[in-house]
Amino acid sequence: MLTQAPKGTRDMLPDEAYLWHMLEDKMRELAALWGYREIRTPVFEHTELFLRGVGSTTDIVTKEMYTFKDKGDRSITLKPEGTAGAVRAFVEAHMYAEPLPAKVYYLAAPIFRYENPQAGRLREHHQFGMECFGGKDPAVEAELINLLMTLLGSLGLSNLTVHINSIGCKCCRPRFGEALRAYLGDRLQDMCEDCQARFEKNPLRILDCKQEKCKAIVKGAPSILDSLCDDCKAHFESLQKLLSAQGIPFSVDPTIVRGLDYYTRTVFEVIMQTGREGLALCGGGRYDNLVEELGGPDIPAAGFGLGLERILLELKNQGLVPEKPTLTDVYVANIGEERRTDAFVFAQKLRALKVRTESDLCGRSLKAQFKYADKLGAQYVVLVGGEEFERGAIKLRDLQTREECEYPAVDAAAQIAAKLSEGKEA
Ligand code: HAM
Fold first, then answer.
1. What is the Cα–Cα distance from 132 to 57, expressed in whole angstroms?
2. Which residue's CA is the nearest one to ligand 1's atom 26?
3. What's the chain's Rg over C-alpha atoms?
């Protein structure tokens, strides 16, 4: 137990950190280009926020939340998704009083769901999410989807299609509920207990059931697209035109309903085509009523969440993981114990000039230092000591070509730094 992480969690070990940094750098860069600003909200919130926000009949709320009482007897829940917290912060900070739309993003936010762990399904995962408050035009979703696909494309991921759907609004969704109930009525006894309970309270959730017997029945159900009101229909058509105008491939998929209750009109997912079937890389949509439902003014909004672990999985599946960077550029070796301090000081000089540098921290012999420098992937070894050092010089050896050159000790650090930056520019 002591040396085992809890089931469904993963350590991000140093060997993988460069991949997370690469993702985070790209995400920040694109967010800045599109005018989204970072928001960080607490890892836990009052449970009530998710009961109201995510929906009390969703799987997330009924089965997957990490909920506990704190020492003050308050019911607290670890974030099972990022949107509700972002909306709470938007309302609490009166961000709606600023010019709208307010565009925010969160980076590698930890999310907790008590799920059955398997590849791509964890109990703690991390999301990059974007939320745009204050725009009711379909251009909002078109912009979000464009950003999302630009991001996935910049990682080299291909063969990804956005699946889009509209699940209507308060006016037309009840009409669909009726059509669905009429279809499911005498098939209900063959469905799972959860679906039987959903039938009255939230029939749309039945479309999202993962049980094979329910999926088979749902296949023949009426399409929600046939029940949309004129406004929702026009919104969905405009979105499709905007996506086409941006050259973004998409497919209209009436089976996408999403596992959270706050969505209105547009919902979308990017599904992984390799690896496990049915796992989404990303999910999102419009949620025009949530801000008001959580105590704010009537402000429409839309957003998406992208699972970072699933992106990493897909990069591996598609053979797109970038090469691991070396750990240092220069290793400063001391020739003999008596030169350790000189080498240590010289290493600091190089670092001050922004050269990635390592020196001996373990009292290694010169031979062992060379071996270690090689393991680190150093390009050069600087030799401090020996006869050159007595003459006031410092030697640099290229570990690949074995070429050596000498520099006067007084400006050796500056010359080595210049040589390295020339090499990098070339
Ligand atoms: P979601 O579809 O539940 O949406 O999650 C978004 C993404 O998080 C998924 O597409 C997937 O990549 C990743 N994900 C979800 N669950 C797991 C898991 N157990 N293990 C690993 N990765 C997972 C939301 O959470 C919404 N808040 C998205 C949103 C933002 N909608 C509007 N704004």
1. 26
2. 305
3. 28
Considering only CA atoms, which of 219, 218, 223 is closest in space to residue 233? 223
Cα of 246 vs centre of ligand 1, distance in Å, is 25
Query: In angstroms, what is the span from residue 269 Cα to ligand 1's centroid?
Result: 10
Which residue has the least CA distance to atom 21 on ligand 1?
121
Extended beta strands in 218-263, E state: 250-252
**CA-CA distance, 124 to 126, in Å (whole number)?**
7
Query: On the CB side of 141, how many CA atoms lie within 13 Å of its CA?
Result: 34
The minimum-distance atom of ligand 1 relative to the CA of 81 is: 25
Q: How many CB atoms lie within 10 A of CB 155?
A: 17
Whole-number Å distance, alpha carbon 359 to ligand 1 midpoint, is 44
Q: Enumerate domains of the chain plus CATH numbers.
A: 14-172+228-317 (3.30.930.10), 330-421 (3.40.50.800)
Mutational test site, ligand 1, from 60, 113, 125, max ligand atoms within 8 Å of CB = 125
Helix and strand numbers, DSSP H then E, in the chain: 15, 16
Residue nearest to atom 25 of ligand 1 (CA): 81
- To test ligand 1's pocket by mutation, which of 81, 157, 210 has the most ligand atoms within 8 angstroms of CB? 81
The tokens 């669905």 sit on which residue? 180
Going by alpha carbons, the residue nearest to atom 18 of ligand 1 is 121
Per-residue pLDDT of the chain (426 residues; tens, 9 = 90+): 889 999 999 999 999 999 999 999 999 999 999 999 999 999 999 999 999 999 988 889 999 999 999 999 999 999 999 999 999 999 999 999 999 999 999 999 999 999 999 989 999 999 999 999 999 999 999 999 999 999 999 999 988 889 999 999 999 999 999 999 999 988 989 999 989 988 888 888 898 888 899 999 999 999 999 999 999 999 999 999 999 999 999 999 998 999 899 999 999 999 977 655 668 999 999 999 999 999 999 999 999 999 999 999 999 989 999 999 999 999 999 999 999 999 999 999 999 999 999 999 999 999 999 999 999 999 999 999 999 999 999 999 999 999 999 999 999 999 999 999 998 877
Q: Which residues line ligand 1 (CB under 6 A)?
A: 81-83, 113, 115, 120-122, 125, 127, 129, 131, 259-260, 280-285, 303-305, 307, 309-310
Report the SS3 class of residue 359.
strand
User: What global pTM score does this model have?
Assistant: 0.94
> Residue for token digits 């309302």?
91
DSSP-based three-state secondary structure for 3: coil
